[in-house]
Write a structure and sequence with these properties.
Blueprint: H1 5-11, E1 17-20, H2 27-33, E2 42-48, E3 55-61, H3 68-75, E4 81-82, H4 85-92, E5 112-117, H5 118-121, E6 125-128, E7 135-140, H6 141-150, E8 155-158
Parallel strand pairs: 3-5, 5-8
Antiparallel strand pairs: 1-7, 2-3, 2-4, 6-7
Length: 161
């Protein structure tokens, strides 16, 4: 598993603003403890279907609430629920609180499907954790899209209301 995301970002010529902070485990803690920026702030949920055969990384505006029944219908899956920390580590190589789309670098076989809120996808800048929950990077969405292409992950856009 990749632990140094910064060398990968450098190899891709992706620029970012780094903000170091105390470890945060929830988007609520991040809103309270991470210095504010103009970038969109995301909530990241690692999900599985009812049988645990399909896994998803849902990235959406941290002020929105997810209707899991509606989301299941959008992705054509059976009931979605949060996956365990053990699964999170096995599939994305990160701990709870450190989840972000940068963790897809640890999924070279594309076993995890990226689901992203359409509103967030259209933002100019996004805040992401660099595989740890004690820092936040502000990255241009254009560079996020290049990163996803480089790691072989396509995004499925969903509507979170």
């Amino acid at each position: 598993m990749v632990k140094d995301i910064f060398s990968i970002l450098a190899d891709l010529s992706i620029q970012y603003q780094r903000i170091n902070h105390v470890p945060v485990y929830t988007s609520e803690q991040a809103r309270a403890l991470v210095p504010k920026t103009d970038a969109a702030s995301a909530k990241n949920l690692f999900l599985k279907d009812k049988k645990g055969k399909n896994h998803y990384l849902l990235v959406f505006d941290d002020l929105k609430m997810v209707d899991f029944d509606r989301l299941s219908g959008q992705v054509g899956s059976t009931r979605l629920s949060l996956a365990s920390p053990r699964r999170l580590d096995a599939f994305l190589g990160v701990d709870p609180g450190a989840v972000s789309l940068l963790a897809l670098v640890n999924d070279p076989d594309q076993k995890v499907q990226l689901l992203m809120d359409l509103d967030l996808w259209n933002e100019e800048f996004l805040q992401v954790h660099p595989l740890v929950n004690s820092a936040t990077l502000v990255v241009a969405m254009e560079d996020i899209k290049r990163f996803l292409q480089a790691v072989g992950h396509k995004v499925s856009l969903v509507e979170i209301t």
